[in-house]
Amino acid sequence: MLKLYPPIETRKSGFLRVSDIHEIYWEESGNPNGLPVIGLHGGPGGGSSPEMRRFFDPNVYRIILIDQRGCGKSTPHSELRENTTWTLVEDIETVREHLGIEKWVVFGGSWGSTLSLTYAVMHTERTLGLILRGIFLITKSEIQWFYQEGASRLFPDSYDRYVKPIPEAERGDLLAAFYKRLTGDDYPARIEAAKAWACWEGETITIQGPTSRPKRFEEDDFADAFARIECHFFYNEGFFETDSWLLDQITGKLQDTPGVIVHGRYDVVTPLSTAWALKKAWPKADLHVIPGAGHSSLEPGIVDKLIRATRDFGRRFS
Ligand code: STX
Question: Distances from the Cα of 136 to the Cαs of 18, 115, 124, 259, in angstroms?
Fold first, then answer.
């Protein structure tokens, strides 16, 4: 099984003003003359991490990462205004133009797959190909499964902790109940809700479950941006006109775009059925179902297939 490339430092980084309110962080590493790739993180609200650079051979790729509006090093932290799927797609174009890149590979997992696909259908001519993991299309049934009922049956222990800040009477619509607290004026209640929301995801992302929850999910700043931005996007149904908008666009526009889809068989955050539907709508993409893996990009079988994909794309497009 292939492992992550060794850690590397950023060569260049900066901030771009993208609206009256927002500045976003971008960074570049790897080979300045290499094949450009943009890495899009999950959440939304998760921020990029240095591990994301390690999916790419630094001799082959010019690796661009950004922190999407309101998270990571981007400012203002946790800001929801002027923060939608459409403003994020615009920011990707702003970064591309700023760096003088004509076309690039687009790489993203989870919400990063949603954003990658949305970008690709809107800017097909800029997208050489897509490498996606943990497919998520922000449909009502996916949101219902993870935040209301479904995943609750596989993780009843974690679920009890998730719903704890919400009184029984409001548990019939957890998304609305969390939205109220995460966007309310009561700061301690907001942070309590944010940590419960974030830890739910942190405990369910790997095949190992609750005991392997990464540390950052209970840190105030991470949890606040992660929970608020996710909840804002999901409460607004991804800002998509209809549940099927993205899949319809993919059917219409991505038929000639190469893609690799990597999805854990036991992904509980974003179940495999969505990746299966995506593959049907986009026959040109190769779907790899990984046995013994959950949602996280760091599951060993997922790392292996993602690195094979970046290696193959490196040969194909360089
Ligand atoms: N959120 C799915 C998602 O995009 C429902 C996601 N899940 N975990 C992450 O993102 C991080 C690894 C970025 C925390």
Answer: 26, 9, 19, 15
